[in-house]
Amino acid sequence: MSVRVLHIDCSGPFASLMLAIDSIPQAVKQSAEARDHASQLNPMIAALLLEVGYSLNDMDAFAVCSGPGSYTGLRLGMAAAKGFCYALDKPLLMHNRLTLMLEELDSQLEVSNLNRLAILPARAGEYYIAAQGEWEAAPMHILQNELVENTRFWTQPASIIGHLEEDFSIPNVKNLIPHEKLDLNTWAKRTFLSFSEQEFANIAYAIPEYLKAAYVNPLKREK
Amino acid sequence: MPALLAIESSCDETSAAVVVDGRVRSNIIATQKVHAQYGGVVPELASRAHMSHIVPVVEAALKEAQISRQQIDAVGFTQAPGLIGSLMVGAGFAKAFAQARRIPLIAVHHMQAHVLAHFIEEPKPQFPFLCLTVSGGHTQIVLCRDFLDMEVLGETMDDAAGEAFDKAAKMLGLPYPGGPLIDRYAHEGNPNRFQFAQASMPGYAFSFSGIKTSILYFLQREQKRDPDFIQKNLVDICASVQQGIIRMLMEKLEQAARDTGIRQIGIAGGVSANSGLRLALQKTAEVQGWQSFIPAFQYCTDNAAMIGIVAWHKFLRGDFADLNITPSARAAW
Question: Is B289 a domain residue?
């Protein structure tokens, strides 16, 4: 029996949806307007399902990109996914964008380097990263100088997927693969695998992976 | 009997309620304690906490009401006003729930809901009635002609009365939320001992920025003379502050009642839990011949039961929202 999963990604400026059957993307939709997930997400879902002739109840699970990204976008995606899962008693699948990027990197390289890094800019001088190889790091927020410290001891060449700020580079990089948006084939494969292995998130307590503490006004923080 | 799920997430309380045939069957409220250490609500922390609370709170509301998800006929949610990040979580969940179950979605105005909190339990006012809605973010006198026919006669031009309470408490060194502490200390104090500035505003408008400044300058002046002034006079200061704020509220409410000739008078919102305001309403009602109404404590502060009552009346009228509706931090009625 095939597994139908509706994928929701609101981590970037545009909301995107994908219906995957087993590990294959079947239909995709992206919002027309940037940063308008709140109004576009639900109508987009209705339109996508109409196109493919399924209802929400036909889904076997809902998958959400858990972060990092716009805090509001992440919450909108997660709130919607939770609402669908809870209303229909379906499982929730959560995947981190950086983890998926590392998987995408592996699938694109003919010969994988020992060191692999997925990297997305946060604000100036700050990044979200995940690393494998001589430096193992689960998805995290990191300052640029800390990034330099952790990569300077790489003795083997590295492959990077993502973006670095202009005038900043990491030594010993053999491949630099730009990353614009989530690779849907990678995500569909990952969700199918997670579904098969029943790696479900707890709907009640699942939260976005912000990877960064909430900003609290320094005047308030001093109290 | 139609069953509605109602969700409230406008500030720092995540709440869900189930309303069956117009009656509240459950009302679960998860109050976020995280803000106390910062002396006020931190919007980002509030948004994050709503995400953790929303499903357990809805689940508890359904369980208490003994209603299954499949039995829900519509979903009401707070659409405005409030903290935008907080509203987004409740709205996002509500929209998805309604879309998944193919049931109507109902957008509710939070301030309208505070007014209709009077219709959760007996005794209920008859129309038309006047409602003084007082909270940390709002101070309004509302003329209610029917469940969904309301008119704001006047509101604050600057700070809300609840904010004046909380800021005064802050100046006195009381922990957040300080409003209830002022109320507690005021019981033991002399309300006539100190006088603070009373705003004189046109019509039914309020202003509470003046009394805040007046309290601040008063405390600064007295503490120069005696650094222990607050500790020595805390209960009298609290009683005087409370009386000053309540006097401004009651003057306008009396004026509105006189002008409209309405004698069904209610108070709503978080500050309506203040014992001084409750007593002032009851005393004035006796003198003026009003019939007064005060919701039970759990329906004064932010709660989903009141959202459910508005949603119920919109449900009866078929007033449903589209899936592209978005929350709004500020919204007219």
Answer: yes
Q: How far apart are CA B28 and CA B59, in angstroms?
A: 9
Whether B332 maps to a domain, the answer reads no
CA distance B129 to chain A (A): 36
User: Angle at which helices B84-101 and A71-88 pack, to 10 degrees?
Assistant: 30
The answer to whether the bond into B191 is cis (omega within 30° of 0) is no
Is B202 within the bounds of a domain? yes
pLDDT at A118 exceeding the cut of 90: yes
Number of domains chain B contains: 2
With a cut of 60, say whether residue B54 has pLDDT above it: yes
* B173 pLDDT above the threshold of 50: yes
Written as one letter, the residue type at A206 is: A
Residues of B in contact with A203 (CB under 8 A): 55
Domains in chain A, CATH or no CATH each: 4-96+182-196 (3.30.420.40), 98-177 (3.30.420.200)
Instruction: Look up the CATH number of the domain holding residue B175.
Output: 3.30.420.40
Which residue among A41, A45, A82 places its CB closest to the CB of B93?
A82
Instruction: Please tell me which residue of chain A has the smallest CA distance to B52.
Output: A205
Residues B141 and B192 in one domain: yes
Candidates A75, A89, A90, A94, partner chain B, best to mutate (most B CBs within 10 A): A75
A216 contacts B92? CB cut-off 8 A: no
Radius of gyration of chain A (CA): 18
- Give the separation between CA A73 and CA B164, rounded to whole angstroms: 34
Q: Give the residue-averaged pLDDT of B110-132.
A: 97
For B57, the closest chain A residue by CA position comes to: A204
Can you give the residue range of the structural domain that contains B66? 3-115+300-316
Q: What is the pTM of this model?
A: 0.95
**Whether residues B67 and B9 fall in one domain:** yes
Q: Which among B97, B166, B171 is the top mutation candidate for probing chain A, defined by the most A β-carbons within 10 Å of its own β-carbon?
A: B97
Going by pLDDT thresholds of 50, 70 and 90, the confidence category of residue A223 is very low
B96–A72 CB contact, under 8 Å? no
Claim to verify: residue B87 and residue B173 sit in the same structural domain: no
Looking at the fold, whether B97 and B183 belong to one and the same domain comes out as: no
- Within-domain flag for B331: no
Interface test with A, best of B105, B176, B324 (most A CBs within 10 A): B324
Model confidence over A65-103: pLDDT tens digits? 999 999 999 999 999 999 999 999 999 999 999 999 999
As a whole number of angstroms, the distance between CA A144 and CA A126 comes to: 5
The answer to whether the Cβ–Cβ distance between A46 and B55 falls below 8 Å is no
Buried b (16+ CB within 10 A) or exposed e, A53-86: ebebeebebbbbbbbbbbbbbbbbbbbbbbbbbb
